Structure formats: structure tokens, C-alpha cells
Request: fold
Amino acid sequence: MIPKEVLKDIRRIQITTARMVSDVFAGQYQSVFKGKGMEFDEVREYLPGDEIRSIDWNVTARMGHPYVKKFVEERELTVMLLLDMSASSYFGSVRQLKVHCAAQICSVLALSAVRNNDKVGFLGFTDSIEKFIPPRKGVRHVLRVVREALYFKAAGTRTDIAAALEYLNRVVRRRSVVFLISDFYSPDFKKVLRVANKRHDIVAITITDPRELALPPVGMIRLIDPETNESFVVDTSDKRVRDDFAQDARGRLKERQSLFTSAHVDTIDVRTDVPYASSLIRFFRQRERRRL
Reply:
């Protein structure tokens, strides 16, 4: 039984994202992520004009006269939402926590998918698999996905993206559109990402808070790593300290983008101090232009 306050929040998410889903993403989602290729439908008797290469020789041999395979365009998609629920996602210095921003993005994508009659699945992870919901269709199923994205409390604190992708490859056999949503503070996952992206269409959504990029000059402060609980004191009044911090942050971003580029993974960069809709819209438009 879903508590009333949870239902209210889910309903609020539905209302606030409804216009975005209807007016902005519905058409672009369908054109960008429409099903690819052809899937088998049935066999039927050969008719003059049918291609010879479409003949099903096994059926033809059994029946004594030619039969051909009939294919239809594959339109149904499977969309998987992989959500990082580690301790570092529970940070935010401006408008909202990173995990809340990520959960809302999950909601928008899930509602867009169900509107297109696609299957939606969910995988919440830390350094272990916290929650897996197999892909299914339907509004009730998607509301469950939204609820878990918003309210599931993970037991783990660290991040292991490689383990999440390996699990995805084991349990989801059909090629899927995979939105991997994280701040990407994780041990090396380059090799697994490349393998997973050959099997699926992976889109990496990076969530960043401005305080992860630059420190304000506020004097002595204690910084704590939420995933390891290690802490240290820094003097932010020292310009060299702030400059070193910013330089390290730029290096991490450059290294991360290089990883995605080498693995041929599309990215959407989201910041907690900027409405995420603009980043999503920009990505959809860019990807739609690439398909033309």
C-alpha cells in the first residue's frame, strides 16, 4: 500500500512533467528512439514478385511448395533506467540534491516511454544491485518505477557502475535504450561500458553540483567523502587551494568525457543549479538532427 504523502508527490511529479512529456518529448522521443530494424511476423505462401532470399527453405521443404518469411518493422522499445543511489548522490548545494534531480529525470523518461507504448525497467544500484524492476508496459507499472526512483533507500554507500552494467547485460537480453544516471564517481568501468554499449544503446546522464567544480572563499571548512566517510580540512580563503580544486575538477570532467567519447556513448550533462529540461531538450534535438 502506497502512503498518501508518497502518492501526492508522485502525482505532483506527473503534473509538473506532463506538459514537458506531451509538448516537448513525445514527438522527439519517438523519432529519436523509435524501434530499429525488422522482426519476424509469420510465414506465408510464395507470391510472384517476392524476393527469392525471403524464402523459408525449411517450411518449403516440409510443405512441398515455396513459403516466404514475412517481417514487420520493429517499433516497440525497451527502456532501462539505471539510477545511481550511492551516498555521493545525496549532495546538493543549490536547488536540490543530485538524487532528487536524477529521480525526476527518471520520471520524465519513464512517462515518455509509456506514452509511446514502450516497456520500462528500473535498476537502482550502489556498489551492489539495490533494486531491479523488469521491463513492462502500462501506467501502473511506470508509477511503480517513479515511486522507487523517488523513495527507495539504498543500503550501500559506494558506487560500482561496472557491476551495474554487468548485471544489466545478464538480465536484459533484448537490445534496449539504457539511460545511465550518475555522478560517475566510480572505479574503472570503461571496458564494461564498451561491451554494454555494443549490446544496448546507452545514454549517460551526468549529474553535477556547482560545489563539485569550485569552492567558495569561506575560510576553513571540513570536506567529507560521503562514500568513504573520510574527511579533511581545507582553507578556502587560499586562492591556490581553490585553483587546485577547480583544476582537479576540470581534469575529472575531461577524463570522463574522453571515456564516453571513446566508448561511443552519448551524454547529457545536467547540473543541480540549472533546470534539467533544457539539457534533455538539447540532447533530443541534437540526436534527432543526427538521424536526418
Notes: The mean pLDDT is 86. The CA atoms of residues 79 and 120 lie 5 Å apart.
